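Predict the 3D structure for this chain.
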Amino acid sequence: MDQSGADTECLQYNGASLIKIYDKYENDHLQTYLIVKNANDRVWLGMTCNESTVAASCNWSYDRGTAAEYNNFGNNYPNVTKGACVYMKKDDKKWYSSDCEQRRAVMCEVPQTSEDPCPYNYNHNCYFPSDVNASFADAVRSCSNMCADLVSIHSALENRYLITISDIQARWWLGGVETPPIASVEKSPDRVFKYCKIATFVLLGLLILGVVVFLILFFVVPKHGDQSASSTVVPSISTIGSTTVTKLATTTKPSKHSTTSKHLPTNGPITNTTASGLSTTSPSNRCSLITNTTFLFAYSNDLQSSLIQKALGDIKTFIVNPKITTFANNRFDTIKEDPIHFHGSKDNFTDSVNALLPDSKLKLPNIKDGSNVLNVIEKFLEQPTCGAIVYILMKRLPDTVDVTDLIQELRLNHISVFPVIDSAYIGSKDQSIMCKLAHTTNGFCDYQIASRLENEVYETMWIVSRVHVFVSRSYQVSGKGSIKVPSFVRPPQGNENGSMGLVVTYQNHARDTNFKALNLTITDDQNKVVLTGQTKSTNGNALLKHPVLKNNVTYQIDIDYEYARTDWFEKIDVRMYSISPPGTWIPFPAYQNVSAVRV
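Done. Predicted structure below.
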């Protein structure tokens, strides 16, 4: 296609642009790539020239510099008499001028970015669309509440990307304010998009923290009634930096042990607060898929400190979804039970975990003693947070008890449990009790050997960071057979290349010799295979995959399994998680019996 059409084609790929070649290494690499791919001999570059034989007159599109920095023009080029546009020739790696209407091959580029659970990820920033309507003042206030600012666009490429992330035709609020002699900026009645880009201001944060502490010490002012919104409405999109914690939850829930309602501070950290000291509103009134929530990291005192610190690093990297506004930690299986500590920032959360690493002096005296992890979950439920994630690292299993009431309350609050367990467990012999909590709350239960636990934590934390379950099916099987999971459409998201988290657990206990093999295939509605997976000897009781699925496409998961015994039931749980929420809460699954086939 011609260069203009090629540029438009690139725009469809998350705001990409025609390729820029930065040095000889990249020029050589592009030639190799074109040869390996058997691509067209001539490929457009994102460059136009103004003068013949003057490389400095050739500009990379979108203010990316000039050819004076590096070029590989052929002899007597650039030559604007042949045209202002530039292509590279595959056979000699040289650059030549061309009429811009000529048809050439297309190659696009986007800035390098980080893998993170953001629907719109660009150049190490994450953009989250919102259908909340707001005036300029409300847009500023909304961003401020998220520790963010309205976006300031720093390049033509960033501007180009922002254009691509919404289909709605509108104007956008920007974070710039005109300086004198303009005295003020008036509120616009027009429809706009707002963008928030996260920014952390340390000095301002310290000042605010000081003010909050002063107010907490001297004034207790409960807030009553609804706050009315501005009558001027506009659609909005917020953006949040991918490594910064967002605001604290501004609504809280009533403790089942309290008749009065306390409120968390709306600014500053919630540090070293025990579970019984918080209160909340009934989840049935306010619980939704996008309600601000809590991530609880609970870890056994029987584990190595290095594993806990590794998990902490993975939490800081991956758990960045904006609905997670509070972080909590608890060290369990100690002689004296620790409280649950709640924090409004990852920094405070990090400090707390590092201060409460496993301590051999606090270990339970007998390796046969059952874990007190169920007490941790019960304490957490004293101030239940709608949609919370409970991620547990453990080695010691709890004694067998009836967890029916515990499950019921977890389900009532849509709290999912994710235990990751050392296969060389101690304590109780009941391997299934933690898996039961996971299965019944749309979580998953992962057993792995100690030498592979760090990698398992990395993999599971990445999947848990997807936050929203949208496929949850469970099967009871034996022998050899196959399962056809009901077809599904994944929740729509802006970045179609953002992967899902798929977990298939094939035993609700540590892997044993009864398990032989499991294979899965995902196909689309055109019967095209988009992902395959099979278990290996290094897998514990779970197969973890990261499929890339498209919007508005129906998918099918087919599973083939094999166990040694036909007289013994095993349990297979299928879970898939997404950054974007489904339209409603996914039902909690019941086990479906699948007929056994004699091996």
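The chain has four domains: 3-109, 112-176+187-202+228-244, 275-464, 468-593.
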